[in-house]
Automatic annotation (TrEMBL):
It comes from the Bacteria. It holds the Pfam family Polyketide_cyc2. InterPro entries: Polyketide_cyclase/dehydratase (IPR019587), START-like_dom_sf (IPR023393). Gene3D superfamilies: 3.30.530.20. This is Uncharacterized protein YndB with AHSA1/START domain. The lineage of its organism: Bacteria, Bacillati, Actinomycetota, Actinomycetes, Micrococcales.
Amino acid sequence: MTDDQNNEQRIVSSTRDVAAAPDTIFALIADPAEQPRWDGNDNLGTAAPGQRIHAVGDVFVTTLTKGVDRDNHVVEFEEGRRVAWLPAEAGKPTIGQLWRWELEPLEPGRTRVTHTYDWTNLTDEQRLPRARATTEDKLRASVDRLAELAECDT
């Protein structure tokens, strides 16, 4: 690994204030069936209904646009405030990537939304180019799409 690779930024995030209540936004994040609607990476194809996240230890399955299933292991959860998961190939250990959503209530009907992608533990060389391509702009696209959906529900 070169010095540039050792020093590269492996945690990327995007934050935006959204004109919707935290519960409205969180409902769209914590229901995997809703996730393909706001995915700014255009990587999620589908997720079966009925997988709503409720706690650390939950596992939900998403199908990527290329038809591959991912088991997503929930590692952080606070209802209405924070959720994070580690993806894995179906039936295998997690691959070193963390997706996190944090919601901070502002005044009534407004929420600060932060979306973070942390790939500090990713070691699979084949996955590194895609990880590097997951930029702040891609995360912002997810936040913007999520905001549009949540603000329509308000």
